[in-house]
Amino acid sequence: MKDLIKKLVEAFGPSGYEDQVRAIIQAEAAGKADEIRTDNLGNLIVLKKGSGGGERIMISAHMDEIGLMVSYIDKKGFARIGNIGGIALATLTGSRARFADGTIAVLYNEKDGWMGPGTLAECFIDTGATSPEDSPVKVGDVACIHRPFEELGGRLVSKAMDDRIGCAVALQALLDMAESPNDVYFVFSTQEEVGCRGAMVAAFGIEPEVAVAVDVTLTGDIPLAKPMSVELGKGPAVKVKDAGMLAHPGVKKWMVATAEKLALPYQLEVLTGGTTDAYTIQTSRDGIAAGCLSIPTRYVHSPSEMVDYNDVLNSVKLLVGMLSAPVSW
Amino acid sequence: MLLKELSEARGVSGNEAAVRELLLKAVENTIDKHCIDALGNLLCLKKARKPAANPAAPQKVLITAHMDEVGLIISGFNADGTLRYEKVGGIDNRMLLSKQVLVGEKAVPGVIGYRPIHLIGRSGIEKVADMSQTAIDIGASSRDAAAKLVQLGDYVTFRTSFEVLTEDGLRTAKGKALDDRVGCAELAEALEGEYAFDLYAAFTTQEEVGLRGARVAGYSINPDVAVALEGTVCDDLPKERDRDLSPVTELGKGPAISFRDGSVICDRRLVTLFSETAEQQGIPYQYKRGAVGGTDAGALHLVREGVPAAVLSVPCRYIHAPVSIVSLQDFDNAARLLKAALTKLEGGLEA
């Protein structure tokens, strides 16, 4: 599964510009899908039909990552940028950006690095250009953070683990699933980082009975971390609540019961900031029972997001277990 | 001039009737059908006037412009006859001091008064005024006298006349509510055209308080493509010295095409449609740089199963203030670009 993860996390795909990620997932999913389509907002919707008598389930993992958009090329060829999604500013100085066509740029700031920028307005990128005329990028061009996939012992680290690791888990679950009574719609959604927009319209179209987002969550296991009882390596996290959503108690029970039945480690998650696709799915149409399977992740929204590989494998097993049996709570 | 009438009409969010009446009068002879929905949106349909050249091209195109403007609402009476107020929509407090306003259906004139410089002192001048110490003064001498002229919940608009400032060059004009009466006027003009698709025009309500009208208009019309016409931020006045920065838009450089704003990432096919049309027709245009603000497109693209959406704007200096300035040249070019892009859209959206 590491090859799949590497391919997904290194792909280019800020919110609204997920095409390259979609192409990778579409190619991997094609052999296992009964139907596959892309909707108006770019969501990739993959249906795996059930044997009948089950529920219509929506799984949502977002393809988009945080990124940058060029707003101005100055007289010396430096480009000014705006954020796409919540960029951790302190992590920008000295890192690199990559554009859709592979163009690389250095991120820096007016304060000369040492103190870090106060605002994104003080940041710029250097593409090696010396004027607007020889700039390889133009206003409106979009960049992701450039950082390769690495294995550090049992941990995996890269940019865009949020939420390509969720895409990898959902995709692997599709590939691993055998018989199921349920019609499962795997949605690889767009624009989560700017307000869970893709999942909102996908849920309207699919009209599922149950929905589960697969996304990263924060942890409380680094030095002087804000107290939170989720740790790397302690298993997939079953979301109870976050800043945007209270998980449906039934969905939570279903997830916990499946983990216990399969003897998989799991942790309950209460997240005080941030939310997932389940937030906009839950209030679609006349309301949908929604929850979230979270993969514990350190350093979220930095260029080096870290997960535990066993947590990833256990997340796939949990998801396959949930989807393969009749839904009950 | 329709834009002058629209600018001077009074229509704070939730109270757009006067603007709606003007617009209905302006468009009723060019459209096939209209209705006013529960949120006050004026929804117009102009049916296709020619057969579709491309069966895959959009058949229902929705263009919106919002009728509402930012303003104030009366929230209480002081014993001395002055009026307490709250803001409706985003207004910088500093813009309010000493402005002339009109209150309620009877358009009672008033002033947002503040202590004179003599009583503020050197240090006070450096500070932002405490808005709780301001009030709308309509000249009434007691609570009872004020209550005879004004009711709780009355809407308040700025008292600003529309005027063309220069007849040549950029052809600048000043007025209130140019965000988004410029869009309303462009849309009325676009309805004169004849297209190969059903053109729905929604003159929307309550944009300034959260894109509320557009959300339900989009739901009921359920279009294949949506475009929001806007007035947008124009900050082309002198910036900090030594910093080579860009304004969001510039006056006179043509209509602004958005890649995105705070509420939407625009459909790239539509962004290209507008920029290519402008290039082909020789219409000046600029991109909106920066993602400030939200627009009706933010609500429209999330309707039902999702709608490809974009934004076309006229740069407005001093937007959300009691008076703004636009270039009528930008305004005319926006209307031209819209019409030409709609004609090009008959051929379909290219991937």
How would you describe the overall organization of this protein?
The complex is a heterodimer of chains A (329) and B (351). Chain A is an alpha+beta fold. Chain A has two domains: 2-65 and 159-324, Aminopeptidase (3-Layer(aba) Sandwich), CATH 3.40.630; 67-146, Beta Barrel (Elongation Factor Tu (Ef-tu), domain 3), CATH 2.40.30. In chain A, 24% of the residues lie in helices and 28% in strands. An eight-stranded mixed beta sheet of chain A has the order 1-2-12-3-13-16-14-15, sandwiched between helices. In chain A, strands 5-4-9-6-7-8 form a six-stranded antiparallel beta sheet, with no helix packed on it. In chain A, β6 and β7 (104-109) form a beta hairpin. In chain A, α3 (161-176) packs across α7. With 351 residues, chain B is of the alpha+beta class. Chain B has an eight-stranded mixed beta sheet with strand order 1-2-12-3-13-16-14-15, with helices on both faces. Chain B has a six-stranded antiparallel beta sheet with strand order 5-4-9-6-7-8. Chain B has a three-stranded antiparallel beta sheet with strand order 10-11-17. Classes of the chains: A alpha+beta (329), B alpha+beta (351).
Walk me through the topology:
The complex is a heterodimer of chains A (329) and B (351).
Chain A: H1 2-10, H2 19-29, E1 35-38, E2 44-48, E3 56-62, E4 67-73, E5 79-84, E6 96-99, E7 104-109, E8 123-126, E9 142-146, E10 150-152, E11 155-158, H3 161-176, E12 183-189, H4 197-206, E13 210-217, E14 237-241, H5 249-261, E15 267-270, H6 278-282, E16 289-296, E17 305-308, H7 309-324
Parallel strand pairs in A: 3-12, 3-13, 13-16, 14-15
Antiparallel strand pairs in A: 1-2, 2-12, 4-5, 4-9, 6-7, 6-9, 7-8, 10-11, 11-17, 14-16
Chain B: H1 2-8, H2 17-27, E1 33-36, E2 42-46, E3 60-66, E4 71-77, E5 83-88, E6 100-103, E7 108-113, H3 121-125, E8 135-137, H4 143-149, E9 155-158, E10 163-164, E11 172-175, H5 178-190, E12 198-204, H6 212-221, E13 225-234, E14 256-258, H7 268-281, E15 286-288, H8 296-300, E16 309-317, E17 324-327, H9 328-345
